């Protein structure tokens, strides 16, 4: 069962990618992006003309894009710009290096050299700006020095290839350039990781040391924004201690207004194993259980706690070590989640709570027994009739998964019959997308498949099978009729 993530919560599903995706991604108009990058591009072109000799930075010039002021008021806004600029510039360099690999394979030496010069310019520009912005850690300085030397070597060696037609020489140079280029790519990647870790440490320090709710909230927002850039960055964030810092916030009553925001960030970080390991080390599951069971907690906080539960119980994760501590709190968590499904004020809250339950029912049969005792079948089937709670195929996907897992228990059949669940499952067999979205179409297919599995399991009970046969005349879908005729022949 996958967990809600992606740019929209509703694009989540049980088999979708892990929760890193429910964040709002950085949406920038292409013209605006071009204008933001224009200063760097023109600077790079000038430096190319000057044979990659960087123009010195004035000592009193402290307004580079990568600069983070020490003043608290401006720091939050600048921090976001620092990180986004760093990522943007890193993407430019990575793109140039990728082009160089391609052109090297094709033997386009003029273009190889031109790309090497541009990459050299971009790297030098980035290094000089970052060094001007803040004191560079010693370990990062080593990478910077080595990287700049390799970039210059790359520029010089590609220039030599422009002045010869000796195929044997060019072949040997191609191998040498490929090796240097690989080293440059690796060194650049390591340097960027260190720079990002340095910026992330600044944000975490703000979360840990500040008492100002606005400063902490802004730092959390910046971390949340970073998590959308992929699992590699989430790993860096986790290793720097973000999960620990965020749970400290969630354990202090004075920061209750930040619980939802902090937990949303935790859920995103936990798309990687390192994030889950950090959560386990600080007894994060107990904190989640406390928030879920606390009646004074606002719905948003409980919903985000459910999102974290959904993330850490996702079958996409290979490690299950953290689930041992989860079992200790499972009864309280399951009880709270089904109550949240029942009282959810909107589809997103229901989706998060039901996704967490769906994942939990996969790894422990005791969870299914608890849910039956809590009238989960009635609650879920009633929710399917409420468009305010179950308004998309993604939510139905969660519901039918829970029902499929509950249906392995003998007592489930009678509850389904009592709530007219057979009719609902037959309707789900014909679930259709309301748009041309591929993800919605895939969600509908999963709903159909899981509804069929649920019906097949429940039809061990003759009453369920007979009810389905009696209802088959209302179905416009041919494959139902085939399936139901098969069940009818077995009963006879």
TrEMBL record:
Give the GO cellular component terms, alphabetically: apical cortex
Annotated GO molecular function terms are:
cytoskeletal anchor activity
The UniProt record lists the Protein inscuteable homologue LGN-binding domain at 26-70
> Where is the region Disordered?
1-26
Biological processes per GO annotation: apical protein localization; asymmetric cell division; establishment of mitotic spindle orientation; regulation of asymmetric cell division
Q: Which residues form a coiled coil?
A: none
Protein inscuteable homologue C-terminal domain: residues covered: 89-473
Q: Which CDD domains match?
A: INSC_LBD
Q: Which residues form the signal peptide?
A: none
Q: What SUPFAM superfamilies does this protein map onto?
A: ARM repeat
UniProt protein name: Uncharacterized protein
Organism field: Scophthalmus maximus (Turbot)
